[in-house]
Design a protein that fits this description.
Length: about 190
C-alpha cells in the first residue's frame, strides 16, 4: 500500500487577493472598451439593447413573492364532481342496436367440422380466429373440437365477435375481447 505524505499547502489570504484584483481594474479603460464595442453595433441593435437591458435588470432585482399556495392542516375537503358512470357498452344508440343482437348464438359441432368452418358458416372474421389461437393455451380447446360440442358466441354492437365459449362435458372455456382489440381467456 502506497502511503505518501501530503505536502503542506501554503496558506492563501483570499481577501487580500481579491483586494489586489479589485484595485488593478482600470475603470476608464473598461469604459473605453465598452464604448468602442457599442459603436460597432448596428443602430437597431443599440436601440433594442437600450430597451431590453433595463427591463432585464429590473426583473433580476425585483423580488418575487413566495408561493401563494398555503398548505392547510386538518381535515381534507371533499369536492363533488359529476361523472357519467355509464359504460361504453351500455351507451347504445338506435343504429348500434339494429346491427347485432345481444343474445347468445349457438352452434353444435358436426362430424368433420373445424373451428375455421364454424367461423365461416357463422360469418365470423377469420382475423378473430387467429387472435383467439394466440391466447389458446396449452390445453388447446380451440384446436381439438369434437362432434356434438357446443360453441356459443356473442357479437358486439358492430357485429364483431365479443365472447366465444366452448363447452365440453362439464367444462367450459371462455374467450373475450379486450379493450385493445385482442382477446383474453378465462382460466
Amino acid at each position: 500500500m502506497n502511503r505518501r505524505k501530503k505536502k503542506k499547502q501554503p496558506s492563501v489570504n483570499y481577501i487580500e487577493l481579491m483586494k489586489q484584483k479589485w484595485s488593478s481594474i482600470d475603470g476608464q479603460a473598461m469604459k473605453d472598451k465598452v464604448a468602442a464595442t457599442w459603436a460597432l453595433l448596428p443602430k437597431l441593435h443599440q436601440r433594442a439593447l437600450m430597451v431590453l437591458l433595463p427591463i432585464v435588470l429590473l426583473l433580476i432585482l425585483i423580488p418575487f413573492p413566495e408561493s401563494q399556495l398555503e398548505v392547510t392542516q386538518g381535515e381534507p375537503q371533499r369536492v363533488e364532481i359529476d361523472i357519467n358512470t355509464t359504460g361504453l357498452s351500455e351507451q347504445k344508440n338506435a343504429r348500434q342496436q339494429q346491427l347485432a343482437s345481444s343474445d347468445w348464438k349457438e352452434y353444435q359441432v358436426k362430424s368433420g367440422d373445424t373451428l375455421a368452418q364454424v367461423f365461416r358458416s357463422n360469418n365470423l372474421a377469420m382475423s378473430d380466429l387467429n387472435a383467439l389461437v394466440k391466447v389458446e393455451g396449452s390445453d388447446k380447446p380451440l384446436s381439438y373440437i369434437k362432434q356434438g360440442q357446443l360453441v356459443r358466441f356473442k357479437l358486439t354492437e358492430e357485429g364483431q365477435l365479443d365472447i366465444l365459449q366452448l363447452e365440453k362435458k362439464d367444462q367450459s372455456v371462455m374467450f373475450f375481447r379486450l379493450s385493445d382489440g385482442g382477446f383474453g381467456r378465462s382460466k
